[in-house]
Amino acid sequence: MEILTEVILAIVAIIFLHSLRCFLLSSGKPWNWPLVGTLPMAFLHFHRIYDKITECLQAGNGVFLFKGVWFTGTDRLITTNPANVHRIMSANFSNYPKGPESKRIFDVFGDMLFNSDHDEWKCHRKITHSFLNDQRLHNYTPKINQHILEKGLIPVLEHVSKQGLEVDLQDVFERLMLDATCMMLTGYDPGSLRCGFEEVAFSRAMDDASYTIFLRHILPERFWKLQKWLGIGQEKIMTSACTTLDNIAHNYVEMKQEQLRISKDNEQEFDALRCFLTEDEAIGSTKHPYSVMRDTVVGLMFAGRDTTGAALTWLFWLLSQNPLAESKIREEMEAKLSWVDATDCWSCDTGELSKLVYLHGAICESLRLYPPVPFQIRTTVQPDMLPSGHRVNSNSKIVLSSYAMGRMKSIWGEDCLEFKPERWVSEKGGMRIEPSNKFLAFSSGPRICPGKELAFIRMKAVVAAILHYYNVQVLPRRSLEVDLEDVFQRLLLDVTCMMLTGSDQEIHEGSLSRTIDDASLTRSFGSYKSG
Ligand code: HEM
């Protein structure tokens, strides 16, 4: 009992000293010193941490300093100021790389574009951009979309609808995007979206890796590195996930080599592995080492599956809350799509889908309110003065919060929390383009997402096909907030258990591990019913 009292007193003393330090830091500084947040604040508001950060950023005019624990390197300057974003992402880009810590956290991606900086990044950028911008990929994309809808999505929804079943739409969309992205990268459809909803090793390994990456953002680096070294807890799961991903990538390469041995001239097909193995001009007509091929394929799998899957889930949830917007999308489809009158067919023609301006606005609204990548972190090389007047030292961590940016009254006006696709339609009825330092969902500057157009086309094809055939209803009994609370409770349980025992194995089944990913805090966990 005495020991317990001492432990509690020690914790209270640490929290008091920590808060005092933060108070002293925030007082007596020049007027433009940012508002300071503390660790106790983060714990108190953990179940709504993104909203709390948004409130702090509103109060601090778009800049907010989070003080972490002493000597752990967890202090963060968080900003939503568009001028700061422009300086960090574009004007002084070379001074704000992702940094070596990011590379260690995301080590599953190896040296892929997403995970590199400076000259190495430039080199990978050339490969990935050339592939994603190749005209042959654009020609092949509608065929991939048609295939995954015909073989995966529609049969599954037809089955669910006829049997009157409930379905987790997020699971459906993630499986769909896994199949689409895998086809784009390897030429093979893994068929993860089929009526049986069988567990797919590829998805499971990606989920495990994503959850580990998420925990690595919270836990001190020394702690998870020790776990990795000892081969215990979540790091053990990560090692096994990496091995699974390596094996899957290796198998696809072997299958593609075999296919190419038989015939090289299938003009109908275009995929990343084919380009790598035939030294195609789409990847610079060069022979790249195996590791580049592996890292590019694995990295793009993550980039293409989770983001687009989460964005589609949120879009359907928002449409269920805004039936008028859904009717407007249907009206637009009737007016602009040539195939919509036919009962039993649809087309994924990119030209036709590009005419859907209102749907484009609805997708942008969903990405503004629920960005699948809710924040991005950069590390300063040299000290710098931000346009907001805040000075940053070298090796400082800066967080750009896309989630908070989408909810700032100063950027989007008083109605910033409302879902209004009209916001993205110009007076002449065309698409209204917002600058990327204001709409940060796809990042900004030289590191802007190279898959943006592809993602829009895929999402439009999926939404058009679903709305053409079905009405999606969110089941009322599972409210979003209740589920998110559940998520945070499970998360705290996992983290605490890991701190105390070094392992979350005992609570693995039914804990957060199977249901969360890196973009996790914006996931819905909702159940949907088609009818
Ligand atoms: C709704 C869908 C998507 C969203 C919201 C999204 C968002 C983002 C964001 C915010 C970043 C910057 C991340 C950072 O720097 O920390 C990024 C980078 C990237 N995205 Fe996407 N993305 C989407 C879909 C895709 C797709 C379909 C692909 C390709 C298959 C893709 C490929 C990439 C790549 C390669 C990068 C790294 C770029 C670089 O570091 O230079 N993304 N994406």
From TrEMBL:
Domain of life: Eukaryota
Cofactor(s) named in the record: heme
Any one GO biological process: lipid metabolic process
PANTHER family: CYTOCHROME P450 (PTHR24296)
Gene Ontology molecular-function annotations: heme binding; iron ion binding; monooxygenase activity; oxidoreductase activity, acting on paired donors, with incorporation or reduction of molecular oxygen
Family: Belongs to the cytochrome P450 family.
Entries under InterPro entries matching the protein: Cyt_P450, Cyt_P450_CS, Cyt_P450_E_grp-I, Cyt_P450_sf
Name of the protein described by the UniProt record: Cytochrome P450
Keywords: Heme, Iron, Metal-binding, Monooxygenase, Oxidoreductase
Gene source species: Escallonia rubra
Record Pfam families: p450 (PF00067)
Annotated heme binding sites: 449
